Amino acid sequence: MSRSMTFAISLLAAGLISSSVLAENVAIVGGKVVTGGPEGTIENGTVLIVDGKISAVGAGLPAPEGYRLIDAGGRYVTTGLMVPYSSLGVQEINLEKSTVDHIVNSPSPFFKPASKVPFSAAFDISYAINPKATAIPVTRIEGITRAVVAPAGTDKIFAGQAAIIDLAGNFDFLTKSRAAMLVEYGISGKDKAGGSRGTAMVYLIKALEEAQAAAQPPKRSRKKGAGAASGKGMLLHPMDLAALLPVIKGEVPMVVIASRAADLMSLVGLKERFADLDLVILGGAEAWMVADALAAAEIPVILDPTANLPSSFEALGSTLENAARLQAAGVMIAIANGGSPGHNSRLITQAAGIAVAHGLDWDAAFAAITINPARIFGVDGQLGSLEAGKLADVVIWDGDPLELMSSPDMVFINGQETPLVSRQTKLRDRYMDLKNMTGPLAYKK
């Protein structure tokens, strides 16, 4: 092995370079290839990977000479899964403040006298993400290759800007920064806006109007400093205003946390008021009640299909059939784990399977954890399906991906095979058979 290759491998192990730098040409043959694209599912399919991207997908394609040959042997071959909402890399231990980076709620020394950070929409989660967080490999070995990492909130209804990352564990983990604007509505939003949903909506409308005005070409005025540019009477901090400009133009989706059917209808009205707004619902426990209105407004819903109990007064209409009813009405859905997005995002396949058990079509459920999240966040040109030209996030499964007992045999991110190893698997392997342990006990040299 050459010195340069040895050095590159050492950098990869340290997470200092991308896995795509060492991506090899790979031919995966003989698989049940779920493309997620126009070709559907291909029996005895072949996936060719070149330089970290998919070069071809088809039935019975021969493996070119010099490629690494992997015989899938009839196993499922799919694109990597994508979590549409998580706190991966910004939340290690909930009760240990030093490991929590997705909430802004403390006084800042940058503002005198010391006070809470005056901006909220401008909060950019991408700077806080730790690609070496232990939850990332735990999630990756379940076939999840990309995730939306979202802020959990500030003391205002604008929580901040989300990012999309890959889960290879390298320091060039960012797929897309400032990928969405998170907004709290419903119970959490009303409490942060004065105690009423009415106040929260007035605040949201006023903020979007200020962004809309700022997006317009400035009007000439004889008065120096006249107009919105002067900042007089402005609701938004200048940094928040700048962060909302691409949102009001529809260039960045605005993801609003809401569950009650009445709240969702208020958001439909908001979309009618701001036509360019790319609005997405997160939660949507009662979304099935207003499915037709959401479909007509082309508002996607990111939901947890396992939410079947009235956990609050805004989720009294929770049902396991929520996903199936929304899909039947023509609403684009994506599946997330609502209970613990920091550590249990890996359970989205289980949630998708439960949705199938309660009426959702299998292909629709799989799309809800692959191509649909990619579409919602504007990265479907790169991710979400096995199609030529897209990034080679590929998973080979030992069974049906939505079956509870199935798991990945191989995971590729950017064309590079990633180890199916986590802290848990290392502990399991070390201590499972104490009688035949070859290594020393942890406290011995």
Could you walk me through the main structural features you see in this protein, from its secondary elements to its overall organization?
With about 450 residues, this protein is α/β, with parallel strands linked by helices. It has two domains: about 1-80 and about 385-445, Urease, subunit C, domain 1 (Roll), CATH 2.30.40; about 80-220 and about 225-380, Metal-dependent hydrolases (TIM Barrel), CATH 3.20.20. The protein is about 25% helix and about 20% strand. It has helices at about 5-15, 135-140, 185-190, 195-215, 240-250, 260-275, 290-295, 320-330, 350-355, 360-365, 370-375, 425-430; strands at about 25-35, 40-50, 55-60, 70, 75-80, 80-85, 105-110, 115, 145-150, 160-165, 175-185, 255-260, 280-285, 300-305, 335, 395, 410-415, 415-420. Strands 1, 2, 3, 4, 5, 16, 17 and 18 form an eight-stranded mixed sheet that branches. An eight-stranded mixed sheet has the order 6-9-10-11-12-13-14-15. Strands 7-8 form a two-stranded antiparallel ribbon.
